[in-house]
Amino acid sequence: MKLILLGAPGSGKGTQAEKIINHYPIAHISTGDILREHISRKTDLGQKVRLFTDAGKLVPDDIIIELVRDRLKKKDCEKGFLLDGFPRTVNQAKSLDLLLNELKMNIDSVVLIDVDFEKIVRRIINRRFCPQCKKIYSLIMNPPKNDSQCDECKVNLVLRDDDREEVVRKRLDVYEEQTMPLIDFYKEKKLLISIDGNGNPDEIFKKIIKKLEIN
User: What domain range is 175 assigned to?
Assistant: First the structure.
């Protein structure tokens, strides 16, 4: 099974990615992880990537595609893969189509975790983080016994910079502008499976598997 996973920041995409690869024997391909791996290994591609990240610039599409090509050629992708975090734009999706055609591969389904933006904002700004044990609490879903302290460490919980409302809304604006056009792109190809991402993660996962099996 060869899948693409789409979803806005805070939609629960990461949780569902983990559940999917635990259910199916397929490779989890996260472009963020690949970028970090190449940088740490100081490969030729990693050195190129470093030039852009150090300058605070986006890594160009042609380099991202090269990284994905290298990853898709690895043996663990023969049984299938889940692309997570790529493509992010329609141009990247078109480049991916060319790459898959070159590698004689095809995408079976594109899974969209669909959550209303206002619910995402509410979900994220109510996260609290323990700087010691790294546990994440939700003041809505799983609040600490004491609003300000970690249950385990008794350390004061913090609101991370990335979880502040202005940052969350900016990330959602970027997603709406760059990534949401992919929904129509893959809908036209009849590959899109849209899943209501509100509610219990286990129930959402069951919906994903049910639709994948039907497809």
Answer: 2-214
With a CB cutoff of 8 Å and minimum separation 6, the contacts of 135 are 129, 150, 152
- What residue has token string 């385990």? 152
88 is catalytic: yes
CATH number of the domain to which 92 belongs = 3.40.50.300
50 is catalytic: no
Contact 17, 29 (CB under 8 A): no
122 is catalytic: no
Q: What is the pTM of this model?
A: 0.86
Pairing of strands 136-138, 127-129: antiparallel
Count of the separate structural domains present in the chain: 1
- How do residues 160-201 score in pLDDT, each as one tens digit? 998 999 999 999 998 999 899 999 999 999 999 999 998 889
List of residues 6+ apart from 115 with CB closer than 8 A: 7, 8, 10, 11, 12, 197, 198
